[in-house]
Drug/metabolite transporter (DMT)-like permease
Amino acid sequence: MTRVQANLLLLLAGAIWGAGFIAQSTAMDALGPIWFIGLRFAMATVVALPFALWEKARATGPVRRADIGGFVVTGIALFAAAAFQQVGLLTTTVTNSGFLTGLYVVFTPILTVLVLRRLPHWIVWPAAFMACLGIFLLSGGTLAALTVGDFLTIVCALLWSVQMICVGVFGGRSGRPLGLSVVQFAVCAVLGCVAGALFEPISLAAIKGALPEILYAGLFSSGLAFIFQNVAQRYTTAPQAAIFLSSEALFAALFGVLLLGETISPAGYAGCAIIFLAMLAVELVPELLRGRRQGASVEV
C-alpha cells in the first residue's frame, strides 16, 4: 500500500466516523454511555475476528509477547478516549465536542516529538493548526462557556493522540494491524461492559432502543473504521493520520446537512475549505519537495 492509498483509507475512516457522530449522540437517549461503548466494541470484536484469524494464518511467525502487551495498552487508551468523549457529550454540545475532539491534530505531533523523539515533516505543524482552525469555523466560530463535558472532551482528544501513536508503533512493529484491531476492540468491550454493569442500569428495552446506533457504531464506526486506521497507519505517520482523520468533523457537518436538514454557515464552508487544504498540503508538499531534490541531484 502506498502512502497516498493509506491516507485515502484514513479519509474514508473519517467519513465513517463523521456519519457515526449522530448515532453516537442519539444512542444515549436510551442507553448509558459506558454500556454503549461496551456493546459497540463487542460487536466490533466479532466483525474484526475473522480478519484477524485470516491474517494469523498468513503470518510467517507468532506475535511477540511485548506486542500483545502493546495491543492491550492501545485498547485501554481507546476505551479511555471513547469513555471521556461519550460521557462528555452528556454535559457539552455536539458543536463543542466536535471541535475539542479535533484538538488531537495538534496533540499528536507534539506527543510524537516528546514520546518517540521523532520530528514530523515541517508541513505537519502548519497543517495541524489549519485543521484546527477549519474545525473551529465549521463548528460556527464560537464556543459556549466551557463545561465539565468540555474538559472531559479535551482529555479525550489527548487520549486519541495516545491511541494513534500506539497504533503506529505496535501495528507497524508487529505487522499485525488486524490482530491489533481485534485485541483493542475486545479490551474496550470487556472494560465497557464491566464498568457499565457496575455503574449504569441496563435493560433489554434500553438495548432495543439503541440497537440501530449500536449496529452502526459496532459494524462501521468501530469495526471497519478502526480497522482502516490500523491498516493505513503502517504506511503513514501518526501526525499525518491525525490530520486526515480530522476530516470526521467535515463529514459530520456534511451528513448533518444531507440527513438532518442542518445548514452550514459561510464560516463553516470556509472551515471545510481550510481542512481540505490542510490535507492536500500534507499529501502534496512532501512529494513536491522530494521531486525538487531529486531533480536538483540529477542536474548536478
